[in-house]
Amino acid sequence: QTATSVEGTGVTSSGEEVPLQLTEDAGTYSMVDRSNGDTAISTYDGRGYDVLQVLGQMPASLPVVSGPDDRFDGEDTESGAVDAHVNAGHVYDYYAALGRDGLDGEGGDMTSIVGVTSNFRPFVNAFWDGTKMVYGSGDSEYRTLSADLDVVGHEMTHGVIEHTAGLIYAYQSGAMNEAIADYFGNAVDVDVSGTSMDDPQAGLLGEDLCRTAAPRDCALRDLNDGRTTADIMGATWEYDSGGVHYDSTIFSGALWDIREKLGAAKADRLVYTALSQYMTPTDGFYAGREAVVQAARDLGLSARDRLAVATSFAAHGITL
Ligand code: ASN
Ligand code: ZN
Predict the structure, then answer these.
(1) Taking every annotated instance into account, which residue ranges of this chain make up the domain Peptidase M4 (predicted)?
(2) Is 106 marked active-site?
C-alpha cells in the first residue's frame, strides 16, 4: 500500500468549494500536496499550540490536517486549514509563472501551521519563521489569518526575499522587505480573484479577514495610502523593528503605482527581477529605486514605461 495523490474538495472561509490537492494513504486523506514536482505543500493543525511552541521547530505531536474522506469543511474551514492549503498552492503557481521553483527557488517544501494562539489567547497575526508559515487563530473581529490570499502571499514572499535579496528586517531595508511582501501578496490575490487594479480594494491587505467591519476600516494596510518619504517614522529598533510595517507603504505605494501604470505582467516581472537580481541586504529606498531602474533597463522596458517608473517613485518622495 503506497500513498497516492488525489484531488479532493475543500470549502473556504468565504464558503466557496475549491479543488484540494491531497495525499491518500490506507483510507486516510491528508493535506499534503505533491502535485508540484519536488515541492510538498503541507498544512498542519496548530490549534491548541502557542506561537512559542512552533517557532523554528515542528513539535513531533503536531498533526498534519487529515480526515477519512476527500472533503474538508466544517472545522477544517474554521481553523483556516482549507484556505492555507489552497492559497499556498496559488502562491506556488504564481512564482512558478515567474520562473521560480518554490520559496527557496530549488523546489523546497512549503509548510503551513494554522490556528495558533499567542499566550494561549486569540492571535491576530501571521509570520514566516525562517522555514514555514504560521497563521494565527483570528478573533471576534478577524477571521483566521490564512483566509486572505494576500496575507498568505505576504508571508510566503518573506521566504522568497530571504532566499534572494535578503533584505535585513530593520529600518529602511526592513520596510522594503515588508513592501515587497505586500506587493506580491496583493499581486497574487488580485490576479487569482480577478480584481481590477482600478478597484480601490485592490490595494488593501487583509481586507477579506474582516468579519463585520467595512474592509477599509479593518484592513491591515493600504498600498494606496499615499505616504511619502516626508512621512517616514524614523522609529526605534524597539518599535516594530524600526517601523517596518509603517514605512513600508512609502515603497510599496510606489511599486503599486507602477503596477497600475505598466500592468500586472510587466510590473511583476520588473519587481521580481529587481528583487532577485539587484537588491542587496542593506538597501534602503533609494538603492531600492536604483534596483528597479536597473531591472527596467535589463528587461528593455520602453522609455515611456521607464518614465512611469521614475514618476511613481518620485510621487512617494523616493527621488535620486
Ligand atoms: N505579519 C507580520 C509580518 O509578516 C508579522 C511580523 O511582524 N513579522 O510582517
Ligand atoms: Zn511581513
Answers:
(1) 8-162
(2) no
> Are 84 and 39 contained in the same domain?
yes
220 and 277 both lie in a single domain:
yes
Report the CATH number that the domain containing residue 300 is assigned in CATH.
1.10.390.10
Confidence (pTM): 0.98
Tell me, in angstroms, the distance from the centre of ligand 1 to residue 9's CA: 30
From 51, 152, 245, mutation site for ligand 1 pocket: most ligand atoms within 8 A of C-beta:
245
Q: Which is the catalytic residue, given 24, 85, 90, 155?
A: 155
What is this model's ipTM?
0.94
User: Is residue 1 scored above 80 in pLDDT?
Assistant: no
150 by Cβ neighbours in 10 Å (0-12 / 13-18 / 19+) ranks as buried
155 is catalytic: yes
| Listed residues 147, 179, 194: the one ending a domain | 147
Return the closest-CA partner of residue 221 out of 201, 239, 199: 201
